[in-house]
Amino acid sequence: MNELAIPGLPEYAFGGDYNPEQWPESVWQEDMALMREAGVNLVTVGVFSWAKLQPTENTWSFEWLDRVLDLCHANGIKVDLATATASPPPWLGLKYPSTLAVDETGVRMAWGARQHFSPSSSVFKKFSLALVEKMVERYAEHPAVVMWHVGNEYGAHTHRCFSEESADAFRAWLITKYGDVDTLNERWGTAFWSQWYSNWDEVMPPRKTVYFPNPAQQLDFKRFSSDAMLELYKAEVEVIRQRVGRQIPITTNFMRFFPHADYWKWSENIDVISDDWYPDLADPESHIEGAMGADLMRSLGAGRPWFLMEQAPSAINWREVNPAKPKNAYRRWSLQQAAHGADGILHFQWRASVRGAEKWHSGMLPHSGTDTAVWREVSRLGQDLKKLKPLLGAKSDSQIALLLDWSSWWALELDSRPSTRLTQMEALLDYYRPLAQAGYSVDFAHPEQDLSRYKLVIAPSLYLISDLGIERIRAASAGGTNIVFGKFSGAVDAEEGVRVGGHLMGLRDVFGCYTEEWHPLVAGQTEEVLIGSNRGEVSGWTEHIRLLPGSAIEGTFSTGDLAGLPAIVSKTSEKSKAWYLGCTPNRDMIASLLEAICIQSGAAPVLYSVPQGVEVTKRSNENGSFLFLLNHTGVEQSIEIGQASVDLISAESFVGAVTVGAGEVRVLHLP
């Protein structure tokens, strides 16, 4: 049987956040009728309704929510019920200021926006769990509820807090990790700059300082802050699970490559991975990031179906300029998420608000009603998704994995680096882009996972690697997996310290080299690398690499201080091959290099000879295989797939070549 993301919803999910508390009750019946017309079958209810549910500390008002859930049930619309803890009511901050977050300079945040709570506040936790208990007691067995939704976008606005209560919690977290202050001193390197701690009371969060804080302290505080938010989530889950069986999944919404929460750790506690995606329309390659983020979500769920929990059908309202989505982009980008494993497409929000900070954020039902282009596109997508039921639970098969570790990301982008111009996202895109454009299916993996099932594992910039990560890399290489390390990888250990002996200790025999010295390039500076007879520019970063026995030079610097020295090194072992790139190649160079590495690794794309600008993915289940062809160009394209197929959406049949209109999508069933 195909695995359903939500057992109580055996069809492709379509809908969004429904906030009826913003509207008079006389509007609700119209909402139901229009939802049915658009094909909506799932709505998220109650995300920002705490102030309506608990107007004062000692009063509760659930009757309106009773009517909303009953109305949804009567109209055949399932509910993802939120715990409403994402935005505390004003009375809580006024009466209990300790619930409010404090920034690194000591300023306490005010209420009046959203998510202004301190993740370490015991008072906030007490009141939030009391609300959840009331919700679960009342709605645990409501027939409309098929999923529970805890919080909302954890860390989007208050991913850390520097209050005294947070400092106490940080110290407790450190005691659990290190045991005693002497071990902390050793791992943090506090002998430097006379930072040695004699007792735990001296240890505090990395508040505003006169110069660089201790980088190990900064890194641990980022880990602690992610864990503090996760503990809030887990506490709410525990309350829900006391009354709600495992057949009802529990989720919270991620934010793709969000830099303030370790989603690998979070994903272990989430039944259905859910994600929010708001592409930057100023980026002509936003579809590349769209595919990459979707692959991350699929990977976080170990390949299981996931949900796009939020997107906008058109414009948003929080960037400097917020244009409407281009023609066909909304539908194509929505189906792109399905192409990469999503079994639900939802939005923020159902009906566009007429007041408040997000009234210019487009809704499924626009201000101008149903006689609008947005409504017609929403309704078209809703009908299209009904036809995708056969692919529910279908999975992807990837032979290539990119390594991503949030601890390494955090450490890479701290302030005391050889270059603060290096970013994790840029490094990931540098390697993901050419693989996606060549038609390869790509997973993401944590370096401490078992990597042996992949033919090729790539670490675009894995600055920090733990001892266990080194063991996993070595085991994968010994088992036949090819390995690629990009710039500044393997530089420090799990506590942000350089291993005795220097770069790549524990992996030098795998790569046949190490870096003697980093040579970052200033803005606008480029150097040249020679690979065979081909020359290409590198920018941003170079390294002085030292060779070890058994290695081979794949590329050489031909200009600058490193001229004549290796830029790219490989080493072939008994069962595999490893490459180290001590530079940032330009797009043509990295594409050519990865193409050769994929061929040597035996990794195959989903399809060969796909036109530029056409994205191809494949999902399979017991009903067969499903090939997605997404045309991101402005002209019709023809793709040879080599077998008979039927388009699930249009019902057209093809033999061999398939045409895809400009900006359009085909979802082909391959029996």
Automatic annotation (TrEMBL):
Matches recorded under Pfam families: Glyco_hydro_42, Glyco_hydro_42C, Glyco_hydro_42M
Chain ranges of the Beta-galactosidase C-terminal domain: 613-668
InterPro entries in the record: Beta_galactosidase_C (IPR013739), Beta_galactosidase_Trimer (IPR013738), Class_I_gatase-like (IPR029062), GH (IPR017853), Glyco_hydro_42 (IPR003476), Glyco_hydro_42_N (IPR013529), Glyco_hydro_b (IPR013780)
Main enzyme class: hydrolase
Enzyme Commission number(s): 3.2.1.23
Gene3D superfamilies for the chain: 3.40.50.880, Glycosidases, Golgi alpha-mannosidase II
Location of the Beta-galactosidase trimerisation domain: 399-598
Listed GO biological process terms: galactose metabolic process
Domain Glycoside hydrolase family 42 N-terminal: 17-388
A GO CC annotation given for this chain: beta-galactosidase complex
Reactions catalysed: Hydrolysis of terminal non-reducing beta-D-galactose residues in beta-D-galactosides
GO MF terms held by the record: beta-galactosidase activity
Coiled-coil residues: none
Family the entry assigns: Belongs to the glycosyl hydrolase 42 family.
Name of the protein this chain belongs to: beta-galactosidase
Species of the source: freshwater metagenome
